[in-house]
Amino acid sequence: MALKDSKCFLTLLLASFTYCGYAQVHAPEIVPDRWLSIADQQFAAENYTLAIQSACHYLDAVTSLTDAKTGNERTKAKYYIAVSRLKTNQETGLDDARQLIAATPVAAYKQRTSYALAQYYFRRNKYMAAIPYYEAAGIANLSNEEIANEKFELAYCYFNNRQLDKAEPLFASIKELQQGKYYAAGNYYYGLLAYNANNYTDALSSFERIKDLPQYSNIVPYYIAEIYYFTGKREKALEEAETLVKRSEKLYYDNELHLLAAQCLFEEQHFKEALPYFEFYFDNVDKIRKEDLYEMAYCYYRVNNWTQAIDKFKLLSSTQDSLGQTAMYLLGDAYLQTGDKTSARNAFSFCGDMPFNTGLQETAILLYAKLSYEMGYNEDATLALKNLLEHFKKTKYKDEARTLLSDLLVKTNNYYEAYLYLTEVNDKNAEYWRVYQKVVYGYALQQAELGDMREADKLLASTLQHPEDISYEAATLFWRGELAYRQNNYENTIRFSQEFLNKTEKNANIKRISAVATRPHALLNMGYAAMEESKFSDARKYFNEAQLNTGADTTDKQEALLHEADAVFMTKDYPHAISLYDRIIAANGSDADYARYQKSILLGLQKQPAAKIALLQLLMNKGELSPMANQARYELASTYIEGNRYKDAIAILQPLTGVKNASNLAPKALLKTGFAYQQLNDLPNAISAYKNIVTSFPASEERPSAMDALKNLYIENDEPAAYAQFLKENNLSSTDNNTLDSAYYKAAEVQFASGNWDKARESMTKYINQFPNGTFITKAHYYRAESNYLLKDGKDALADYNAILKGQTNEFTENSAKRAASIAYQAKDYKAAEDYYRAFRNTTGTNTNLQLAYSGLMKSSFYLGTMDSSSAYADSLIAKPQTDSTLRAEALLYKGKILSQSKNTEAAQSYFQQVQDNSNSTIAAEARYNIAEYYYNQDNLKDAEKMANSTIRASSGNDYWTVKAYLLLSDILVKEKDYFNAKATLQSIVKNTGIAELKQEATKKLDQVKKLEKKQSKLSEE
Predict the structure, then answer these.
(1) Does residue 673 carry a pLDDT above 70?
(2) Beta-bridge partner residues of 1019
(3) Which residue from 286, 595, 828, 892 has the fewest beta carbons nearer than 10 Å?
(4) How far is 878 from 861, CA to CA, in rounded Å?
């Protein structure tokens, strides 16, 4: 049965084979068995082409035979054909071999065909395809030589497919067959596997066997040298490496041998000797590992070759690990050695941003902060020190950091925070007390500005315990005298002022501390204190001495002279007082008209009414040219009333009742006018004057008196109904309600006067709700608006300011328009702001406020895009000779911005340059930035960089322009191909700025810089 089945199987197998379908050749008549015998001989002699032909003849001759013997011989013939075709690299042998392997039950044919098929794939480097056939071939039907070959070839296939655990035992067996074909290769690959597995003993054994063979002498010696290095035999490794690199014929791993020699020398701290090897390696490779680059840079660093150390360390600025962090720290130090503090600062910034070595990070942050402080980058220094104290709670630098941080905060007038940091310092050295004196002095003055005089004086007193700087000591004494005066402590005013005078005799440089802390000002304070104590003779002496100490300062001299005159006035030495006032009048300064006014009073006291009237008329006729004109008019009218010249008084007072810039005197003048009409028995005009006060000046102090006068006049004339009608027409409270009205309002006013804005707002709201037409309704709306404004609630404040602006003009109209304009402008509602500023301009009566109105109109027009209007307002501010210096500078800035908008950048520069050094830091910062940007666009990188850095240093507190300048600086550095500093600059922006749009811009630029840096870097990414 088995034989029958076998015959059937062979018949089917024959039908499916196509061995000889294309190999029919003419052959002499030879019996079939002879053809198979010939094929045997040819195959054994490796004449594979002939073996194929002979085997095919055999198959052709026995196509009709089906006995068992013929079936076995036919399988043999097919075996010869399949294997011979594989041996001769014929692709058709693939299918023949696969079919034979699948069909034959004969293990020998199956295994040997698998072996031939595996070798076919092996020769074509198809190692993955070869593996299963090598594994199927086994060793039972292979010769010893074939077994050895199979082991190596299969191991090699495993090796190339990373199946190292399978490759290793096969290579291990081959490497011991000295007579084998693959003895050398087996040792090489086994050595590699052992080397990679850190099995250096076995690796060295294998490599030593083949190191002198030609095919390995160019490679293996390198591995041997490496093994010496890894097994701690540094001297032998170095000896091998140095010997090998001196060969006339360079090894394949020549670069690596130089690196090995360099590393050996590096580890022995022979840095100078290591450098030539590092340099050779660096110059002859496309990429270098970060570890190798670091060692090379460190060698340069140790031999003080700062330029090369910088060049190499710089390439590691993107390496985010402890090695990169150390590199940046050393790079910072190398830059310091060359005097390049800018780059050193950036290197320490990189180091400080990395958390891998906290000790280095801590020190780097401090160094970055100190360099920033030294170079004028105060905001950067401040942020760094705060970062240090926040993230390193127990830092050994805490006292130094807090002291330095306090000193920095002084530069932005942040005395409160500076003071808090000082209170946490434990090590109070001389530097601490130097900063303490400065910080506490400034903090004390801020407390004084806030009204806390006692705390201010207490703080100033504490600085006198450690007076490191005599200038601050003197300024402190001056301000203690000043504060004593403000607290009505006149004895201490004189005491501290005298101590100040004693200190100034030692020529302390006080002016840089306080411009007002001068000898004349101290003497003036002493004079004021003496005046308050009615010690007029002493006051006279102090004021007189002040004049002798003013030097070239005629303003102080005139003020002292004026107050001396006032002091003499108070001693009732009228002739001498008049002579002093005459001196002031003769000088024709700003106080001349005040002196004339005071002289007129003295003339009245000396019973010289005609002379008094003449002098008052002189002042009055000056009109707006004299600040005393309206006061003189009012005094002249009062003089006429005293002399019963009521008609003359009415005529004199009339201009005061309607002049806009005299609104503070208008209700007083109307009250006097009503009184004069009453004395003339002209009741209708008297009533009209009082009504004018009530309706036009509802918030004035004179209103209650006017209401009482009206009530009395109506009652005296038996017209109570007319009075009631007047109240009704003007929505005024009745007499009974008026008392309640006043009580409610006074309660609210007390809260406002005390600075309790929340309570004031609440109380004013209650009043407005209770008395919507109350006597004090205008005041209530204004003070509620002010409370909301001070609480930074612009929306609610604006509602009340609008309520005031919609009513009749009053003493609050001007400031309401000013506040409303400011609120709208801050909210970027430029159209509304423009309208409010226009209303402000139309209601203001002072030159100062008129300038503010023009400034607001200029800026609002600019942002509305109406450049012609903006330019015209700017021109008006620039042209006015009395324009405030800051507003004039602002106008010049906007002229430059307007020209820049119209692309006339060159003309714009003349305006920017005029304000680049302005005392207003915001104006100066924007101007400097625009100048820097202009230089950059002109490709004048040197001046652009200089101006950008100037902007950064001088723009403390102006975050927007500081960051803009840093962005511009990064663009400059990129143009100069200084990618290291450009990257550091941008990373600092991304890390620190809170301005979203600028952070986004910096992030984008940073990505671009990193790509540029990577493109030109030799650093490997591995």
Answers:
(1) yes
(2) 288
(3) 286
(4) 17
- Nearest in space to 1003 (alpha carbons), one of 987, 992, 985: 987
Residue 366 — very low, low, confident or very high, per pLDDT cuts 50/70/90?
A: very high
The single residue listed with the structure tokens 């423009």 is: 834
Reduced 3-state DSSP string for 933-946:
HHHHHCCCHHHHHH
| Owner of token pair 């002040």 | 546
Give the DSSP H/E element, type plus range, for residue 663: none
Distance of alpha carbon 352 from alpha carbon 331, whole angstroms: 13
pLDDT at 543: 87
Share in percent of the chain as helix, strand, coil (round to 5) = 75, 0, 25
| Residue corresponding to tokens 């006051």 | 539
What is the value of pTM for the model shown? 0.71
- Indicate if the alpha-carbon torsion angle 593, 595, 598, 604 is positive or negative: negative
Do residues 557 and 547 make contact, with C-beta atoms less than 8 angstroms apart?
A: yes
Dump the DSSP string for 228-279.
HHHTT-HHHHHHHHHHHHT-SSPPTTHHHHHHHHHHHHHHTT-HHHHHHHHH
Q: How far is CA 138 from CA 107, 113, 135, 141, 152, in A?
A: 10, 11, 6, 7, 13
Find the Cα–Cα–Cα–Cα dihedral 135, 140, 141, 145, rounded to 10°: 80
**For the residues 463-485, what does the mean pLDDT come to?**
92
What pLDDT digit, counting tens, does each position of 31-61 carry?
A: 778 898 999 999 999 999 999 999 999 988 8
Question: Is the per-residue pLDDT at 21 higher than 60?
Answer: no
Query: What's the CA gap between 956 and 383, in Å, rounded?
Result: 12
Look-up of token digits 């006013």: 749
Mean pLDDT along residues 787-816: 88
Say which residues have a Cβ less than 8 Å from residue 788's Cβ, sequence separation at least 6.
757, 761, 794, 796, 797, 800
SS3 626: coil
- Name, in order, each residue with C-beta under 8 angstroms of 477's C-beta and a sequence gap of 6 or more: 464, 496, 497, 499, 500, 503
Taking CA atoms, 667 is separated from 324, 372, 626, 670, 865, in Å, by 78, 60, 21, 5, 43
Q: What is the pLDDT of residues 820-874, one digit of tens each?
A: 999 999 999 999 999 999 998 888 867 888 889 999 999 999 999 999 999 999 9
Residue type, 105: P
> Count of CB atoms within 10 A of residue 606's CB?
13
Question: Could you give the CA distance from residue 810 to residue 804 in angstroms, rounded to a whole number?
Answer: 8
Interval 198-234: pLDDT, tens: 999 999 999 899 988 988 988 999 999 999 999 999 9
Predicted confidence at residue 660, as pLDDT, reads: 55
Residue 958 · residue 923 · CB < 8 Å: no
Yes or no: say if 543 and 523 are a contact pair by the CB < 8 Å rule: yes
Question: Does residue 517 sit in helix, strand or coil?
Answer: coil
SS3 letters across 534-547: CCHHHHHHHHHHHH
pLDDT at 98 over 90: yes
Instruction: Please give the full DSSP string across 567-605, using - where no structure is assigned.
Output: HHHHTT-HHHHHHHHHHHHHHT-TTHHHHHHHHHHHHHH
CA distance 111 to 136: 6
Q: Name every residue whose Cβ is closer than 8 Å to that of residue 996 and which is 6 or more positions away in sequence.
A: none
Q: How far apart are the first and last CA of the chain?
A: 68
Helix 885-901 vs helix 867-879: angle between axes, to the nearest 10 degrees? 150
CA distance 403 to 419: 10
**Among 503, 504, 482, residue whose Cα is nearest residue 493:** 482
Alpha carbons 295 and 1020: distance in angstroms, whole number: 15
Of residues 925, 968, 915, the one with CA closest to residue 944:
968
| 799 or 69: which leads in pLDDT | 799
Out of 29-43, 631-645, 727-741, 891-905, which region has the weakest mean confidence (pLDDT)?
727-741
Considering only 11-15, 388-392, 446-450, 749-753, which range has the smallest mean pLDDT? 11-15
User: What proportion of the chain, given as a percentage, has pLDDT over 90?
Assistant: 53
